[in-house]
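pls design
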């Protein structure tokens, strides 16, 4: 429960309300992470929040992409190079990327969900020959809110079918407009040998998962990253309970065969 001190090695704005921080350990270091896991980040004098790990830093630290939506996240987004934060983790379950070897892979991201899926796509791109057809579908509010545009181009060059859709286009946008769910019908995959990784707003994840299952993908092969209000990260406080699950321990990555019934109950 005691956070380790980490220094902000770099701060890179990725859009108006979102920054990517590279955090380097000062004394000791958290263990290596698995794609899909998260840390609890402490902004000194403000509080602590869970944040998905979006990458590994050469310094031995983490890269984490944060949107300013509350007091703690705003404080972290305003952190400058050299500032100290507290870090503990990594916590939670991971995306089973090695288990998809030899299969077609679908990665579906909505908004900030691409940050949690970035390590997955990097792994797929780095070991592209191990997988069948790989598709990344991304939905974002506007072209200006799209995360990692340069990396999207690099992933295309690595042999990944990358498709982006926006809710509100600008005058220069020439791509599709609408919800990311509309892109499922545009990609090619063999349902019975497909693994899917989905992260974004819960309504989007439910729709994507249900559509993939209707098309023949096994519910056990559709993984999603679920969010609830986390306080401790280690299963003690119960704030992140979703039915029988504590998402800091049993999640955040949960397969659709376990999550479908729980997500159908509005009170949960």
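designed seq:
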């Amino acid at each position: 429960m005691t956070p380790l001190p980490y220094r902000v090695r770099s701060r890179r704005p990725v859009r108006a309300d979102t920054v990517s921080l590279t955090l380097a350990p000062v004394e000791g270091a958290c263990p290596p992470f698995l794609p899909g896991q998260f840390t609890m980040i402490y902004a000194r004098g403000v509080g602590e929040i869970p944040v998905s790990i979006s990458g590994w830093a050469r310094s031995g630290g983490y890269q984490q992409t944060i949107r300013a939506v509350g007091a703690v996240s705003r404080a972290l987004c305003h952190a400058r190079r050299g500032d100290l934060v507290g870090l503990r983790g990594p916590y939670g379950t991971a995306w089973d990327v090695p288990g998809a070897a030899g299969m077609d892979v679908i990665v579906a991201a909505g908004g900030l969900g691409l940050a949690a899926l970035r390590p997955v796509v990097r792994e797929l791109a780095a070991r592209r020959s191990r997988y069948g057809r790989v598709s990344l579908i991304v939905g974002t509010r506007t072209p200006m809110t799209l995360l990692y545009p340069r990396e999207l181009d690099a992933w295309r060059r690595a042999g990944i079918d990358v498709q982006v859709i926006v809710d509100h286009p600008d005058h220069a946008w020439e791509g599709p407009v609408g919800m990311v769910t509309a892109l499922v019908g545009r990609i090619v995959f063999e349902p019975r040998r497909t693994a899917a990784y989905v992260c974004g707003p819960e309504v989007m994840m439910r729709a994507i998962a249900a559509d993939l299952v209707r098309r023949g993908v096994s519910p056990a092969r559709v993984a999603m990253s679920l969010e609830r209000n986390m306080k401790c990260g280690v299963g003690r406080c119960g704030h992140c309970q979703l039915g029988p699950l504590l998402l800091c321990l049993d999640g955040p990555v949960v397969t659709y065969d376990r999550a479908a019934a729980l997500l159908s109950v509005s009170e949960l």
